[in-house]
Structures are given as structure tokens and as C-alpha cells.
Specification:
With 557 residues, the protein is of the alpha+beta class. It is 51% helix and 10% strand. The chain has a five-stranded antiparallel sheet with strand order 2-1-5-4-3, with helices on both faces. It has a five-stranded mixed sheet with strand order 7-8-6-9-10.
């Protein structure tokens, strides 16, 4: 084991006297090791003029190598610099940790023999506390230069070193080349480390914001506020929710634009379900939205030409799920408008109309789910199953992105909810019943209620709830656009066929005797008529089925 010299500017420069004694390499005690002149080094017996010209040529070549190394480090990073060194030396080069782990190598996968020699050299260099070293083998040598600061990785063995394994004897200029390359390589690695830490921090913040949104959607406001306190700004209450649809890859730029337009007062979340959507919670300001205008939506669509914006009504944090549904429906309307933005049209609210007659029915329907106890600790509990059901009803298969679970796990949980409640969730009536029940009950677990006495009145049915006068009025208002002057021909028949076939396009088209694109076009016109999203989740299909059922009950003796 010998210590390798590093020219001025390298990680561990040697003394001038040692450089004068040994231009190639030397032992730890400083005794020079003789080398055969190579790589254009001057012949000691050559005339002074020839020797001077040869020295100048060597210096120019070294200067070119230094410039090349710095340019590669700046434009291509550590990988490009390692690749160039491997080609320049026609040898194995790599990054080796002090504990012997090979972090990167060129060319291709690590050569086991070369990597093993470099690993032994790194461990030996680390144990002796030196910054550069040469480890000789039978027919080749490993040259190593430390890249991290002396204190970095000293106790854990994680400090990195540049290693090159070459056949012996190697050219005299190799140590200088490696020492010169180690300087930009060390700086590049530090910059790459900083960028990686920045990306991890950005990902952690994005996931934290997603978690806050998920908690708000499930009614867990206290926990959402606790997490939000670590981020900025604080959650606005009351607020309007904006769902901004932009081009793929533009969410970061649009997010910065939202920050500027709201003076950093808005809570901005990347939608975990739709990769082109941003969810923005903006504090309400009566003056800002007066006269039916929305300056923020207008500014967003003016600044980002491909953006489409849907805006909810003013609401409170406890009603965050409703605000998202409103903004999403408004987004469906905005796609067909020249201004590319729309405010949710105020209309009859199902949850308000159904709360009186439907609260007892919803509690009775969901009681088995609220009191469900998993058999194993690792199985999902009642709250998790409720959140899964809510996400699945809103986003169908896309709920896996929101819940961060596999599609098989989602299917298993939905089947379990189906078994617990005794509902057929493969049909639109079962889905609509569960959707309404979830909206009429609190998000947190209610306290278990004692068993009802044997002579107690039976729980109301969904039909009894929908037959209530309040629901009848709601259904008439909800379906009124079908009989208005703007209704396209056959609108009611199209809606009935779509609802009768569980909101599936293919059987709906077959029932109507038209093509699937034709059925899609008809439903798109119904979206503009109702000002609600039908084809993309969260869809208004559940409310429309409930309204259609309530209308049928009202007209049937």
C-alpha cells in the first residue's frame, strides 16, 4: 500500500519536496519509486530545447484534460465524467465507498476483480486516514482519491473515493489526471447530493399536502390542521375550491402562478388522482368575486392558455368533499366554454334535502360498517373501509392513486364493504344508496348504539326516503333541465338508458341503437345541460339515479 501524490488543486496535495523527488508515486516514507518515462514525458538524456518542448506539450495536454473534466462535470454530471475517464485511461473507473461498496462504475457493470481491488484499496485508505493511495496487485494497481470532506463518513465508512484500476506499469501522467478530475467530480457529487435532497424534500411536502387533503375529505379536520401547521400557508376557512386542469408536465409552473396570483395565501395540492389537475383552496373575498366574476380564474386562464378552471361555491372546511365535487362539475362545464372557466351553478343540494327523512336510514344502513372490527390487526378497520368506499365511489379504479394501494387491494376492500353492508356495489342502485348514506353520516366512527328492542319500528327503506316530499321537490328541480328549452332531442331517453345500464357506455349505445361515440356525444351534451360531470369521475350519476328513482316513485300510485 503506497500513498499516491495529488498535484496542486487536488483533494490532498503533496509537499513540493516530495513532488520534486517523485513525479509518479512514492511510498508512505517518501522513498521514490522509479518509473519508465511514458505518456510523452521528456527523456532525461534529451537536449534542453527538446525537453522544454516536451514539457510544454505535456502541460498543454494536462490543461486540455482539466478543461474537459470541468466541462463534462458541468454538462453531464458525475456519470459523464466517469465515462470520459474510463475512455481516456482505457481502464475501469468508479466511485467506491470506504466500506467497499461500489456506487458507480464505467464501463458497464462492475468488473468483479477490478471492483474488489478498488474496494480493498478504499477500505485500506479509510483505515489509515489518508486522502489518496495506490494498492498494487500482481499485474495491476488501483489508484484512489478521496472525494468527500475529511470528516464525512469517517466513523461510518461512507466516504466516497474516485478509483481507477490499470495494468502495471501505468503511464506517469495517470495520477495527475485522476487528481485533477477528482476536484470537479467532488464538487459535482455535492451538487447532485443537494439536488437529490431537494427532490426528496419536495416529494415529502407534496405527500404531506396530499395527506392533508385526504384527511379533509374524510372529515378529520383536527389532524389535517395539525399537519398543515408544519406547512404554509394555513388552511383557509371559509374558502372556494379551484380545480385547475393544465397540460401534462405544467403543474409546477401553474402552481407557482397560483401562488403569485393569490399572494401565497392559497393552499395548493397536486391532485393525487388526475396528473393534470391542481386543487387550490383560496380564502374567500367577497369583493374579489362580485358581479359574478372570478378574477383568479380569469387570470389563470389568461396567463396559461391551456388551463381550464372549475370553481366551487364558498364553503367551510368541514364540507371539503362537497366543494371538490362542485369544482369538478364546474370544470366539466368550463371545457365547453370559450373563457375556459366556470363557477358551480347553485342548485338543489341532495344532502340538505335528504337529511331529515334519510338520516335514520343512513345510520341503519352503515351501522354494520361503523361497528366492524377486523379479525387481524393488519386488516383495514371501519374508518379505513369507509374511506376506501368513499374514494371508490368518487374515482372508481383511479382510487388506487388516492389511497396509494394496489388495485387488487382496492377490489378486495370493496368486496368486503359489499359483504358487510349487503349491497350489490356492481350496480348503480347499490352505488347510489351507499353514496347517499355516506353523505348523510359523519366521517368519524359514531359510538356503537345499543341493540334496538324487538318491538321497535323497522328502519326506513331507501324508497321511503326518496318518496318524501322534500326529496320529490329536489328531484323535480334536479331533472328540470330535461324539460327546459335548452334540452336536446331525446335527452330524457338517453339519460334513462344510461342509468338503466349502470352508467356503462357500450350497453347504453346498444339500447339506443347508436354507436358508442354517438352515445358519448349525447352524454357530453347532457353534461352541459346539467352543468355536471357525467363521463368522468366524480360523476353526477349517483344523484341522477336517485332523482330519477324519486321521480318514478312520485308518479307511481
Amino acid at each position: 500500500m503506497v500513498e499516491c501524490p495529488t498535484p496542486s488543486g487536488g483533494p490532498s496535495p503533496a509537499s513540493g519536496a516530495e513532488r520534486e523527488r517523485a513525479p509518479g508515486r512514492w511510498e508512505r516514507g517518501g522513498r521514490p519509486i522509479q518509473h519508465q518515462p511514458a505518456d510523452g514525458s521528456p527523456d532525461p538524456a534529451a537536449p534542453p530545447a527538446v525537453a522544454a518542448a516536451s514539457t510544454a506539450s505535456t502541460l498543454r495536454s494536462r490543461a486540455d484534460d482539466v478543461l474537459k473534466a470541468h466541462r463534462l462535470a458541468h454538462t453531464g454530471g458525475s456519470r459523464a465524467l466517469l465515462r470520459w475517464l474510463s475512455l481516456r485511461l482505457d481502464a475501469w473507473t468508479g466511485l467506491v465507498r470506504a466500506d467497499g461498496r461500489v456506487l458507480a462504475s464505467r464501463p458497464g457493470p462492475p468488473d468483479p476483480t477490478a471492483a474488489g481491488l478498488a474496494a480493498r484499496g478504499a477500505a485500506e485508505m479509510h483505515s489509515r486516514g489518508v486522502r489518496s493511495a495506490v494498492l498494487d496487485d500482481t499485474d495491476r494497481a488501483a489508484l484512489l482519491y478521496a472525494l468527500d470532506e475529511p470528516a464525512a463518513g469517517r466513523s461510518t465508512g461512507t466516504g466516497r473515493a474516485l478509483a481507477a484500476v490499470l495494468p502495471r506499469p501505468y503511464p506517469a501522467g495517470v495520477p495527475a489526471l485522476l487528481a485533477d478530475a477528482a476536484v470537479p467530480l467532488a464538487l459535482t457529487l455535492r451538487a447532485e447530493d443537494a439536488e437529490e435532497r431537494h427532490q426528496r424534500a419536495a416529494l415529502a411536502e407534496s405527500r404531506s399536502r396530499e395527506a392533508v387533503l385526504h384527511l379533509l375529505m374524510n372529515g378529520r379536520l383536527s389532524t389535517a390542521h395539525q399537519i398543515a401547521e408544519a406547512l404554509t400557508p394555513s388552511l383557509p376557512d371559509p374558502f372556494r375550491m379551484y380545480v385547475v386542469e393544465c397540460r401534462t408536465g405544467q403543474r409546477e409552473a401553474v402552481s407557482r402562478l397560483c401562488e403569485e396570483l393569490t399572494d401565497a395565501s392559497a393552499w395548493i395540492v397536486r391532485c393525487p388522482v388526475y396528473v393534470r389537475h391542481l386543487i387550490v383552496l383560496v380564502p374567500t373575498d367577497g369583493a374579489a368575486t362580485s358581479a359574478g366574476r372570478d378574477p383568479l380564474a380569469e387570470a389563470l386562464t389568461a396567463a396559461a392558455r391551456d388551463c381550464v378552471v372549475g370553481v366551487s361555491e364558498e364553503t367551510r372546511l368541514r364540507d371539503c368533499p362537497a366543494a371538490y365535487t362542485q369544482a369538478f362539475h364546474a370544470l366539466a362545464v368550463a371545457r365547453g366554454r370559450t373563457g375556459r372557466h366556470a363557477r358551480f351553478g347553485a342548485g338543489p343540494e341532495l344532502a340538505l334535502a335528504a337529511h331529515g327523512p334519510g338520516a335514520a336510514w343512513a345510520e341503519a344502513l352503515l351501522a354494520p360498517l361503523h361497528t366492524y372490527a377486523p379479525r387481524r390487526p393488519q386488516d383495514p378497520g371501519a374508518q379505513e373501509l369507509r374511506a376506501t368506499a368513499h374514494a371508490w365511489l368518487n374515482f372508481a379504479s383511479h382510487a388506487t392513486r388516492l389511497l396509494k394501494i394496489h388495485r387488487n387491494t382496492l377490489a378486495t376492500r370493496v368486496r368486503l364493504v359489499e359483504q358487510i353492508l349487503g349491497l350489490d356495489l356492481g350496480t348503480l342502485p347499490g352505488q347510489a344508496a351507499l353514496s347517499l348514506a355516506l353523505r348523510l353520516t359523519p366521517g368519524a366512527h359514531p359510538a356503537p348504539t345499543p341493540a334496538a328492542p324487538a318491538d321497535a319500528a323497522p328502519a326506513p327503506t331507501l324508497d321511503r326516503v326518496l318518496a318524501d316530499e322534500a326529496l320529490t321537490r329536489w328531484a323535480a328541480d334536479h331533472l328540470a333541465p330535461l324539460t327546459g328549452p335548452a334540452a336536446p332531442p331525446g335527452a330524457r331517453d338517453t339519460l334513462r338508458a344510461w342509468l338503466r345500464h349502470d352508467a356503462q357506455l357500450v350497453p347504453t349505445a346498444a339500447a339506443l341503437g347508436i354507436s358508442v361515440p354517438g352515445a358519448r356525444k349525447r352524454l357530453t351534451r347532457l353534461e352541459a345541460l346539467f352543468e355536471r360531470s357525467l363521463l368522468q369521475s366524480p360523476s353526477a350519476r349517483h344523484d341522477l339515479w336517485l332523482a330519477h328513482r324519486a321521480e318514478s316513485l312520485a308518479t307511481t300510485p
